[in-house]
Each structure stands twice: as C-alpha cells, then as structure tokens.
Amino acid sequence: MGVATLSTDVQRRIYRLMARMKAVDDRLTKGILSGEFIAIYFSHRGQEGVAAALGAALRETDQLVTTYRGAHDHIGKGIPLVDLFAEIMGKEIAPAKGKSGTMHIASPETGVMLSTGMVGSGIPVAVGLALAAQLDGSDRVVAVSFGDGATNTGAFHEAANMAALWNLPLVMVCQNNLYAEKTPTDHTMKIKKISARATAYDIVGVTVNGNDPDETYAAMSEAVERARSGGGPTLVEALTFRLRGHAIGDDMVYIPKEQLAEAEKNDPYPAYRQRLISSGAFSEDELAAIEAEATAAVNAAVKTVAAAEFPAVETLMEHVYANPEKAPA
Amino acid sequence: MQEQEMTMLGAINLGLDQALAKDGKVLLLGEDIADPAGGIIGVTKGLSTKYGADRVRDTPISEAAILGAAVGAALAGYRPVAEIMFVDLMPIAIDQLLNHAAKMRFMTAGRLTQPLTVRTATLGGMGMGNGATHNQTLEAWFMHIPGLKVVMPSNAADAKGLLTTAIFDDDPVLFIETGALYGARSSVPLGEVAIPFGQANVVRPGEDVTIISYGLGLTQAVAAAEALVAEGISAEVIDLRTLLPVDFPTVLESVAKTRRAVVVHYATRFAGPGAEIAAAIQEELFGQLAAPVVRIGARFTPVPQAPTIEAAAYPNVSDVTDAVRRVMKGVREVVS
Ligand SMILES: Cc1ncc(C[n+]2csc(CCOP(=O)(O)OP(=O)(O)O)c2C)c(N)n1
Ligand SMILES: [Mg+2]
C-alpha cells in the first residue's frame, strides 16, 4: 500500500492523538519508575501510529474492544484523560470507582466496550457486539485490537470464523509488535504474515506498516468502510514495536540490541512529525502547540487524579449483583 | 392460571418461546439449536422456524466464541441465551463467563451489565454409558464465581419459571438442565410465571429430618422420604432450586424444626455444594442439632462407563435412607 494522500485535517487529528498517547505513556512511565504512582501499566510507546489511525478512522458511535495494552486505543476513541488515569490508579473518581484497573478499562460513553487482560478473549466479545450491530440494522462498526500473540489463541480463530460466516461489521486489528511478553513472534508461528490467517476464513487480510500512520489510516478506513457497507470483517495486521517492553520495568534483555536500535530508529512519533513538517502543510509552531496542549492536558489530569482518594472500604461489595439481597457476602 | 402436564424438555421449550415472543432482544445462540434439528434432543425445536434463524442462531462448534458473542451481544443490550451442549464442555468457554460476564458489572461499577443466560445440561445419572467426559456434575465449580447465578431445576414447572427469571435477570445466569429429567412430567402453568432466585421449595413437609437437595438428587430425596414413612420417620424435603444464591433462611428454618439434616447431590460429596449447606447449618444451629449433618454425594472418581460401576459412583435412594436412619439415631456418619 503506497503512502496515501490524507487531508491535512486527518493528519492533524492523527498527530493530536499520537501526541496525547505519547504524553500519557511518558507520564505514566516516569511516574511509575520514580515511585510517584503505584500502577500496573503496559506501555504502548511506539504503537501510537496504529491506534491513532484506528481512532481517526472510526466514528464516535462505533465501538471498540481492546486489551491490557490499550491506553492508546482508549485515547484514540476519545476517553477523557481523567477517566483514564483514574482507572489506572484505582481512584474513587474513576468511572469504575477503583474496580477496573489498567487491564479492564471500559468507557461505554466513548464506545470502549471492553478491555481484557485475557489474551485473545476480547475478539469473540467483539463478534457479539458486531452481531448486535447487524441485528439492530445499525451502521455501527466494531473494531477489536489485539496483539500478535493473541492470534495463536483458539478465541481468535473461533471468532474470525464466526465473524466471516455471519459477515459481521468487524475490523480486527492485530498490532504486531513482534513480541508476546518475552517471546518473539517467529518462535510461535510458522507463517510470516499474520494477515495470511484471514485467508483461512475467506476474509480480507492486509499487512501495513503500523509505524506509518497514513498508510495505516488508509487500511483502517478501507476496512471500516467495508464493514459499514456490509462487506464483512477485515483482518488488518499493523507491524510495529513496543519500545518499552511488555510492562513498565521490563529490562528487555531478551530483545537483540540491534533490533531495539532499529526499532527506535523507526519510532513513528518523530518520523511522523518530520513528515508533517516536510510536507509543508504544518509549521513547527503548530506541532509544538499540539504537543504542549497534550502535555498540559496530561498534567492537569494527573493533578486531579493524584489528589483524588481511593474508594471507601464500604464500597467493596457494591456492583457484584444488581440486587445483592440474597447473595453471599 | 391454566396448567398443562408436560415434560421438562417441553417446559424449557415453552419458556424460551415465551421469552422470544415477549422481548425482541432475546437471542438464542448454540450448536444445532435451529430447525430442523431444534437441538440435539429437541429442546429448541420450532423456535427458529417461529422467530427466525437470526434470533435462534446455529453456531459453529466454538464454545469460547459462543459465550464471547453472548457477552458482546449482552453489552449491546441483548438478552442472549447461549447453549453449551453439555456442562462438560463449559471449561472451553468458562473464560468468558468467569472473566468477562460475571465481573462486568463490578469492573464497570454498574455501567455495563450482562443480562445473559447460559443453558447447559448435565448428563450425570442418565445411565447411558457416556463415560467420564460426558457425565459430569460440575455446579460446585460455578458457585465459586462472584457475580454469577447458578440454577438447577428439578421439575418441569420450576424449569420454566426459573428460566424465565434467568432470561430477564440483569446478571449472568448459568442454567444447568439435567438430562435424566428432560422426560420428567409435571403440571406447568402455561402463562408467564417467573420463580424468584434464592427461594427454595419445601416439596414435602415433615417433622423429624430435613433432606436438602436439587436437580436429580431431589428425586432420590423424595423417594427416600416416601420409603421412610413406613418406618415412622417424617422427612421434610427441600428443593434448593438455585445454588447461587442459596435460600439459607428456608433451610435453617426447617432444620431448626427437625434438628437433623441430610444433603443429597450428584456432584461429588467432597467439596460439593453440600459442604456449604452443612457448614451453614452447623454455624447457625450447632447447639440445637440432634445429629451431625450428613452429606450424600457422588464418589470422588471420574464417572466410569460400565453400568455397574457407573451406578456405584452416584448416590442412590438407599444411601439417603441409610443416612436418615443414622441421623435419627444421632450417630456420626461412617464415610465409606
Ligand atoms: C490467555 C492468556 N494467556 C497468557 C496470558 C499472559 N500474557 C499476558 S500478555 C501476554 C503476551 C501477549 O502478547 P500479544 O498478544 O502479542 O500482545 P502484546 O502484549 O504484545 O501487546 C501473555 C502471554 C494472558 N494474560 N492471557
Ligand atoms: Mg505482541
């Protein structure tokens, strides 16, 4: 897929999202490593291009399912930053009131219907959401984001078959960051391209350079349009890299030095910035303003969340059942 | 209300039919459920013809995706009723029930809910020689899942009434049918009757001992109670109907009166649901009991194929009558 000619409006939107994603990741990483925050966090640093392209290709009314490594996807879908930080830190002001955590964030208000810590398990849930969209006769599209490792689960294959069989409005986005925890992808599958798995289900599969947001956006838009117009599901494999390893604190000793150096060289964030400047359509000042805005928004959100309390002990048993009257306690 | 005698299979079919008619958001998903098959033994017969193959939807043999799709559809406002053919197949799908459905309300502080029902069946006690992987009685597993409800009806009327409650409940429900009871007939109200969860049924009043059971075990409890009349023993029999939640007040009220209790089930005796019931009774009524609470359950072995040893793995009526005689004497149970 060649570099598509995107409108500057779309590029601006993508860059804004990427800046926000990176600012969130930088702040969480710094806060966790310094001991300022106590939180579990799976960094998306390096994968911003994929999530921004996806976010820009979806409508507000479309729905998204993602994973523990999903903060970038949430931001792409428009989650308020206070909600995001509060969920990650388990504060009382979190919409889930301290009962979700990084791996389990839902933001139905922005269309994030599930984030799961169970590798692969979100994909069948997205099938159900897409089935509902189809039965409703709505033009809603469902996107589901997952890793390369997830495509080795039975859940992926069961869901891909079902989505294909029922011709569902689903976009399956595999963020292939070349590792699943500490294991390189080529140790766990014989095929070279994950998108080839689509052929087994008679659906369209494409591989794109996930570090190129424009190329990725073109593929996402095409897949979203196919889903919306009744053309069924698509598997989009976006090649990318997790620059900060599996979880914050990962020493990444299992990654060959040359590979890491190469990945850092291909960091989509500075590369995209450079492209926008080179295109002549964006000034240094404009991009700096976008970045400053992202940083300010993150700092403001962190300030609010840091000042918030953890939930009161009395809230423990809330929300186990609609009606707890007869339930065990 | 008008009633009609029918099998449990027919009552479940009628319950599904009425739910599909009542609410366009009710959606059935499962293997072989659509017509002409209408289920492997016909539980869903006629429903896809009546309500369309979109709403009574055949699926591939993909247990994880069946429950996953049910979770997703429930997130989007449907009331899915997913069928997992046998409870032995639940392990393939349990991730979705355990990690998504049962925790959704909690993990979103009530912003997303899971009004879904999983129907499945235990073939335990059918005596068909299905062997170890198609004969299990696993309800105790699911009683360990906060956020879930577990239902196990023992008769046609209860099956219909509890299924209606399950489908319209706003939390996820595991509805375990019993293969050996599909053909059991009883009088069933034809209109919509929803039996609340956590409301046990005193199926037979008595004075001397309380026999607590559910599902197929109830058949033995009742048979034992009838046999014991000749010995002058008056047994009260309680059908729990739902295992999560358990109606402890009804159980405790009965045992406070009889001072003796025997719990019967097809699940293994070891760490079976009876352990929870027995523990609750002794916690609340310790000083009032005339005998230790006795649990009768399956032996702790995979279920074998050959009829002689298959039958020996499960409790039988004489196990129950023997247990009642022991508690009547107040002697401690002898564990074989
Ligand atoms: C079903 C399951 N198996 C194992 C794990 C432990 N685990 C968490 S993340 C992970 C790696 C997943 O890799 P991938 O799908 O490529 O996603 P990535 O983390 O690279 O984004 C593993 C094995 C899990 N959470 N769920
Ligand atoms: Mg990966």
Explain what the structure shows.
The complex is a heterodimer of chains A (329) and B (336). By secondary structure, chain A is α/β, with parallel strands linked by helices. Chain A has a single domain (8-304), classed as Thiamin diphosphate (ThDP)-binding fold, Pyr/PP domains (Rossmann fold). Chain A is built from ten helices and eight strands. Chain A has helices spanning 8-33, 48-57, 71-77, 81-89, 122-136, 154-165, 213-228, 257-265, 268-278, 284-307, and strands at residues 63-67, 112-116, 142-147, 170-176, 179-180, 183-184, 204-209, 234-239. In chain A, helix 1 runs antiparallel to helix 3 (71-77), helix 2 runs parallel beside helix 7 (213-228) and helix 5 runs parallel beside helix 6. Chain A is globular. The termini of chain A are far apart. Chain B is α/β, with parallel strands linked by helices. Chain B has eleven helices and 14 strands. Chain B has helices spanning 8-22, 47-51, 63-75, 90-107, 139-142, 156-168, 217-228, 248-258, 273-285, 307-313, 317-329; strands at residues 3-7, 26-30, 56-58, 79-84, 117-122, 149-151, 173-178, 185-189, 201-204, 209-213, 235-239, 242-244, 261-268, 294-298. A seven-stranded mixed sheet of chain B has the order 3-2-4-5-7-6-12, with helices on both faces. In chain B, strands 9-11-10-13-14 form a five-stranded mixed sheet, sandwiched between helices. In chain B, helix 2 (47-51) links the parallel strand 2 (26-30) and strand 3 (56-58). The longest helix of chain B has 18 residues, at 90-107. The radius of gyration of chain B is 20 Å and the shape is globular. Chain B starts with a strand and ends in a 7-residue tail after the last helix. The chains are: A alpha/beta (329), B alpha/beta (336). Chains A and B meet through strand 2, helix 5 and helix 6 of A and helix 3 and helix 4 of B. Magnesium ion (MG) binds at residues 147-149, 177, 179-180 of chain A. Magnesium ion binds at residues 147-149, 177, 179-180 of chain A.
